Request: fold
Amino acid sequence: MSHELWQDRTVLLWGEDAVRAIRQARVLVVGVGGVGGFAVETLVRAGIGELGLADGDRVEETNRNRQMAALVTTTGQFKTDVLAARARDIHPDLRIRTFTRYFRPDTVRQLFEGYRWDCVLDAIDTVAPKTALLLECVRRNIPVVSCMGAGARQDPESVKCADIARTTVCPLAKIIRTNLRNQGVTSGITAVFSDESPVPGSIRHDTTSPDKRSVTGTVSYMPAVFGCHCAAAVLRILRNRAVSSEVRH
Reply:
């Protein structure tokens, strides 16, 4: 038995070859709040070998209803630091890199300079850097899984995974599709989205914060559902790539 004991149940399900491929993979997660935090947890427990965590946020009290990093004891700490420590406690051999800063459209490329990622998981909730990240992945021919709007939803059974061209209902997905199409990209990006219409009255315009124009309601389980769907899509890409490589050889 070449795998570690804590991975035994995964090997039983997927086999040694798949687990080995996952252990050799390098995945970048951009945005480690609600969706991204649960995605990180899922990837780490699946045995990912190297992980990049990118986010400039600190844990706030309002994060505790939905975010993996948010505890009373972690309030005020950087989310990347909290999740990196948790990840190492689960998977001590994990190679982990943190990018604890905000990325603008013109600085997203820094996440790729000097790094070779096998897959990228996009959990950014701001349109401009999200679009820039997706375009950078397309330009570099790196598979990417992108989370669309997770807030203002309550039905976990409405969460779907499909090519970006096949997303429906989600307002954020519509904006991203338009932005990508304007740059000549119409498909080839895996999207996790909900075909549930946003719950009426669940968005509050915030006039007190200089950073946010609105606050979107959400409940504990929805970011987790989105995050697990995103992580599952990444793992599926990595496993399929490993199978394709074996067939070629």
Summary: The chain has one domain: 14-248. Residues 42 and 232 are 8 Å apart (CA to CA).
